[in-house]
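Residues pack. One example:


***
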Amino acid sequence: MQRAIKKYGLSCFYFVIFETYNIENNIKLVDLERTYISFFKSEFLYNFKLIATSMLGYKHNNEAKWKMKNRFKLKKHPQLGKPRSEKTKLKIKLSVSGKKNSMFGRTQKKRSKILISAPLSKSVYLYRVFEDRFELFDVLSSSVEIAKLMNLHETTIGRYIKSGKILIWKSNKYILRRSLLVDNI
């Protein structure tokens, strides 16, 4: 519609509100649309379909999903490298905040949280420090796991990983790394 209005001008279109409904009512809008479409001759309608349908409940097959995933691999996405204006960012933020957010008032299931965080997690190698060497003590799947083990905040663990400083825990000295140490002291 937006392209057509730009091309032909708003004066070429008629907008008529036939009925209004509260969103919370369980009204099948497709049935209403089908009824109203039937009142007009097809040459006076802008719809390209003469029978109203809905995609509600439709599931894409694997081939369609593959096409959607790969459509921008050959040609770059048209928005790539174009920064959004502050006004646009604010509109996006407002459109998904509060009750408009699909997760408003809901919490993620424990299984979902694990599935979301697993690909983002990076292993952490916990080395025990002796006077003349390091010894691999444990490998944990993420800094969150180490934070729970040591009863520390995740941010604290992150700082020790970045700085390479020695952490004292249960009267022992440890160093946290994101990768295996090749050379010991």
In short: The chain has seven helices and four strands. Residues 2-44 form one domain. The beta strands are 124-129, 134-140, 167-169, 172-177. Helices lie at 2-8, 29-37, 62-74, 86-95, 110-117, 143-150, 154-163.
